[in-house]
Amino acid sequence: MRRRSISLLVISVAAIIWFAWPETHSSISQQKSNSKASEASLPPVRDGDIIFHTSSSEQSKAIQLATHSPYSHCGIILYWKGAPYVYEAVQPVKRTPLAAWIKRGNNEQYVVQQISELLLFIFDLFIKP
Predict the structure, then answer these.
(1) Which of 11, 18, 34, 95 measures 20 to 30 Å from 2, CA to CA?
(2) What domain range is 91 assigned to?
(3) Pair 77, 46: CB distance under 8 Å
(4) pLDDT (tens digit, 0 to 9) for every residue of the chain, 129 residues total?
């Protein structure tokens, strides 16, 4: 049940981001990194942060074309036993160490978005006063 809930959460957040993000993602402050992913160089992250990257697989290219997004993968960062992990909706939902998840991306590039900033973006986009 918990695994299903996490999976639904990841899929829901990903869908919202993929459909709402492409046109205006540059107006949101983002934390980008081009550094190599090692334990010492991991970005400062908090529980609930969302991380994005792109891989070079054909599936990633198809996702980018379908969503009009520069990213093909996303996950939610949660700490487990004191270390940051990325929970991602793959078959099945899995927990990957943050450094390993970053290394899978093209040139180890990624974007981390704080959930509070993302929620403000979504509210601004969909809820007009």
Answers:
(1) 18
(2) 2-23+30-126
(3) yes
(4) 666 666 555 566 665 555 554 443 433 334 444 444 555 567 789 888 999 999 888 888 898 889 888 888 899 999 999 999 999 988 788 999 999 999 988 899 899 988 777 777 777 777 655
